[in-house]
Amino acid sequence: MPARARPLQHLRRPTRAAPSPEAAALVRVPNPHPDTPYVARFAAPEFTTLCPITGQPDFAHFVIDYVPGKWLVESKSLKLYLASFRNVGGFHEDCTVGIGKRLTAFLRPRFLRIGGYWYPRGGMPIDVFWQYGKLPAGVWLPDQGVASYRGRG
């Protein structure tokens, strides 16, 4: 995907998710405070994709934290990008790391981290974490706030 700004094509009208993550159009907008390091957080508690082996649905709670540089991701385009995984197969690690890498390549943030908190598959939850860059000094980065899966125990 080319890393270029697109017009705000998703706002003020109904839009559908792309058929695949590769076809999804992320949109970026200028950061109104590029000289100020701060954290922007997105939480996607209802992420879904399909197991590439069985075709069964997999569910995750994603938390994406980033310190923007020149660009912000437009939230509706991010929502539609994440929804584009719904009907494609992807391993937990591939989805989590791939989302982090795509956002990093597109936005060129100072720092980005993604936590993928996957619900159990085969009785075993898998949590996947990926990070780009170093957190700038003096920036407050809260805990992602997603508890480890404990089941009934």
Secondary structure: elements and pairs:
Elements: E1 28-30, E2 40-50, E3 57-67, E4 71-73, H1 75-83, H2 92-107, E5 111-118, E6 127-132
Antiparallel strand pairs: 1-4, 2-3, 3-5, 5-6
List its traits.
153 residues, alpha+beta, GTP Cyclohydrolase I, domain 2, 4-stranded antiparallel sheet, 2 helices, globular, disordered N terminus
Describe the structure.
The model is unreliable at 1-5 (pLDDT under 50). 27% of the residues are buried. The protein is an alpha+beta fold and 153 residues long. The chain has a domain at 29-132: GTP cyclohydrolase I, C-terminal domain/NADPH-dependent 7-cyano-7-deazaguanine reductase, N-terminal domain (GTP Cyclohydrolase I, domain 2, 2-Layer Sandwich), CATH 3.30.1130. Strand 2 (40-50) and strand 3 form a beta hairpin. The chain is globular, with a radius of gyration of 16 Å. It has two helices and six strands. It has a four-stranded antiparallel sheet, covered by helices on one side. A two-stranded antiparallel sheet has the order 1-4. It starts with 27 loop residues before the first strand and ends in a 21-residue tail after the last strand.
Low-confidence segments, given as residue ranges, are 1-5
Task: Look at the structure and give the CATH class of the domain at 29-132.
Answer: Alpha Beta
User: Helix amount, in percent?
Assistant: 10-25%
**Beta-strand fraction estimate:** 25-35%
CATH topology of the domain at 29-132: the name is GTP Cyclohydrolase I, domain 2
Q: What structural category do the secondary elements indicate?
A: alpha+beta
- Series of H and E elements: EEEEHHEE
In round numbers, the mean pLDDT is 91
How many H/I helices?
2
Report how far the terminal alpha carbons are from each other. Answer: 44 Å
| CATH architecture group name of the domain at 29-132 | 2-Layer Sandwich
Order of the strands making up the biggest sheet = 2-3-5-6
- Overall geometry comes to globular
CATH H-tier superfamily of the domain at 29-132: GTP cyclohydrolase I, C-terminal domain/NADPH-dependent 7-cyano-7-deazaguanine reductase, N-terminal domain
Instruction: Evaluate the radius of gyration.
Output: 16 Å
Biggest β-sheet description = 4 strands, antiparallel
Tell me how many strands there are: 6
